[in-house]
Amino acid sequence: RDAERDLPEALADGVIEVWFQPILHVPTGRLAGLEALIRWKHPRHGWVPPPDIIAAAAVIGLSEAVLRYILDHVYRMKLLLRERGLDEVRIAMNVCPRELTQTAFEKLILEKLDAFGIPADGLEIELTEDTALDSAIASERLAVLSRAGVSIAIDDFGVGYSSLSRIRQLRVNRVKIDRSLVTGLHEAGDKRGLVQAVIDLGKALSLEVVAEGVETETDLIALREMGCPFAQGYHLGRPTQAATVLDAFAPPF
Ligand code: G
Ligand code: G
Ligand code: MN
Ligand code: NA
């Protein structure tokens, strides 16, 4: 496939970008975090879906190179946030099961945290699927990161396989409620019950809860009433380039 053939050059030329989407603290509306999302606009085929980029990298043996690339962008953004007094804004990056088992990703992450002088709790790992977390090697690697202080989040929570015992075993700090349960929340009674249950679960287990897929003000108001601590979605900010996010949330003074 073209994506595979053109990936090395796209990495070398910096054509691949890392964009960021804001995560807001619901009670105050303040910026609490950013989710890093890889973006590649191929000159002929247009936007390449992120999972295809990750899969292409694995096929041609560039998984580690892509991970390093994303980490460099994430850590550079952390430094920019620090310059603007936003040290407490945590950056989350997505990690899929294959990355967990096939690359020495915990070493890479910790090495680079050190090199950039960034505290481990400034970074979060979003586990995009939990299927491979059965593997001992994946949980051991996550445990290494967790012990170092890196935050662990379960993505797409509520539609996957994550059990409560798994959450404890993996030392999860945060759950992100899947957007299919959140979008249109105000008009659907059943969704509201599920979302409220996760919010309450978070309080009971000291887990941070993020509602994803907040697309309207009415959904945001409903979440605020329900006591949801964090939210993310197009209504609060779309994924954009680093400079755009900084202009919106951390303007120079
Ligand atoms: O950003 P977008 O909506 O196109 O993302 C589609 C999917 O790709 C999401 O599930 C997201 O978690 C995943 N994704 C985005 N960026 C990355 C990345 O850098 N690494 C991994 N493993 N997945 C990513
Ligand atoms: O699977 P994951 O949650 O990592 O997917 C993240 C992707 O979801 C982001 O890259 C973004 O493109 C998409 N996304 C973020 N907010 C919204 C939203 O409010 N609505 C929709 N439809 N997609 C969103
Ligand atoms: Mn995610
Ligand atoms: Na998600």
Question: What would you note in describing this structure?
Answer:
This protein is of the alpha/beta class and 253 residues long. It has one domain (2-246): Alpha-Beta Barrel (TIM Barrel), CATH 3.20.20. It has helices spanning 2-12, 50-59, 63-83, 97-102, 105-116, 136-148, 164-169, 179-182, 189-205, 217-226, 242-249; strands at residues 17-25, 31-39, 41-42, 46-47, 90-95, 123-127, 151-157, 174-177, 208-211, 230-231. The chain is globular, with a radius of gyration of 18 Å. Bound molecules: guanosine-5'-monophosphate (G) (2 copies), manganese (II) ion (MN) and sodium ion. One guanosine-5'-monophosphate (G) is lined by residues 37-38, 49-51, 54, 70, 94-96, 99, 128, 239. Residues 1-253 form the EAL domain.
The percent range for strand residues is: 15-25%
CATH topology: TIM Barrel
Q: Judging by the overall fold, what is the CATH architecture?
A: Alpha-Beta Barrel
What separation lies between the terminal Cα atoms? 47 Å
Compute the number of strand runs. Answer: 10
Tell me the Rg in angstroms. 18 Å
Which ligands are bound?
guanosine-5'-monophosphate, manganese (II) ion, sodium ion
Helical proportion, percent range: 40-55%
State the shape: globular
| Mean of all residue-level pLDDT scores | 92
Number of continuous helical runs:
11
Order of helices and strands: HEEEEHHEHHEHEHEHHEHEH
CATH class, named Alpha Beta
Helix/strand class: alpha/beta
The largest sheet, given as strand count, sense and whether it forms a barrel, is: 8 strands, mixed, barrel
Number of domains: 1
